[in-house]
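Notebook B, p. 112. Complex prediction, attempt 2.
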Amino acid sequence: MEVVFLTFILVLAIFLGFELIAKVPATLHTPLMSGANAISGITLAGAFISAGAADSHMATILGTAAVVFASINVVGGYLVTDRMLSMFKSKSRGSR
Amino acid sequence: MLEFVANMAYVVSAILFIFGLKMLGHPGTARRGNMLSSLGMLIAIVAGLTHHGIVTYEWILAGMVVGGVIGAVAARLIAMTRMPELVALFNGFGGTASLMVGWATLYGADLSTFTVVTVLLSILIGGVTFSGSLIAYAKLSEVIDGKPVIFTGQRVFNSLLLIALVGSGVMLTMAPAADSPWLYAVLGLSLLLGVMAVIPIGGADMPVVISLLNSYSGLAACAAGFAINNNILIVAGSLVGASGMILTNIMCKAMNRSLANVLFSGFGAVKQGKTIEGEINPISADDAYYVLEAARSVCFVPGYGMAVAQAQHVVKELGELLEENDVEVTYAIHPVAGRMPGHMNVLLAEADVPYEQLMEMDEINPRIDQVDVAIVIGANDVVNPSARDDPDSPIYGMPIINVDKAQTVFVLKRSMASGFAGVDNPLFFGENTRMLFGDAKASISQVITQFN
């Protein structure tokens, strides 16, 4: 039954994603992509379990490496998206 | 009880991700949207840390500090022109993390068929994302040649690769073990598949590749979520997967090609368009200045060459001078200009061009004949009239910005070499076209000195 629930979640979330992104202006394509990329670093929440469960040496090594990579993804992704978005200026607020 | 609270926290972060993504879609709210989404991430991370299976925190904390510092430094130091490389790398890191989480799951006790299959999927998708992104990174940063790599028997080789992958996967599912040789086979073959998937794709098609890898990095997280039974991974992963798919689709439409065509055809290898004969008309920076001084409406059309020459700031400077001269200045941006979706928009934003001045292809084309001077800066294929007029051209059918219909066209170009797709461009031979040869940044700076 668990499988069914998870699949339900998967399907609904994909449709939701399509709806959310469908009408994004071209100007925001890059920030949207890097912002979404940061979200894919959510694997971090899963990597904790592998890194901290102390099941075996190999699992700890893999988990820790996953934590490193996912943290780069999360921290770097959000910061760089923010840096890009901070540059986008409207004429009214802009320098002119 | 703690688990219940953690799961509720995941619901909250899912909501924040959804609102964050929605707000990222509007220029006015985008920045707040990104912050909302990062708040969702923070909540998910804290909730993840409370998991009952975690007995030791030292490695987790060490890993987060190392990764966080690397990520923060990279995000701060990267030049805006190198953004496509960074996004490619981050995609790859997301993929690796999911691969490793899936792999580590095999060391746990319960190895049901369902778990093993989802672990296989996270290794496959994560591995393809990782090696594919590294190749994309190498192509973008010109560590390796950006041209498509095609060899005879490529399709046969790839088919065999896929069969071997499925075979190894089945063997592992039948006798699941963390030290199974079939596991290493799946790992190696997945990484190889990622390489094989990206090498036949050329530089001009990079926006498609980048957004597709973006989608994969989400799907990999999703597969890892199935493997470890974690809802938030599934929800967040599929949101990212879906948004990447949409972007990929937009990019493909902008080139009037199907995704399959981009992925498998090895661009420009098949058809050869007409060779063009005619005379080119060079122009000096001095003469360009006189034409610009008399113009009432000027439209800049940037391409990848602007990023290479780092010319966005001088372009903006010239745009301002023209505006002071009461010229209407616009910037027309083709959806696939540059090496990733929205590449030109980011560069012009960095140079402080307000986004109201940026026009999409469909906005500018109906009024392009009222533009006195269209200035093409390092763009080629996206302004190539063959795409419209020559059915034999490899890029025939791709929507273009019709700069050839403007009163005058300036093309800033280093030399007479053909564009990335290797296609000749009749625009350069047009009667209303003037070629301004040289480095784009230097050429524009020269025109600017004339204004002062």
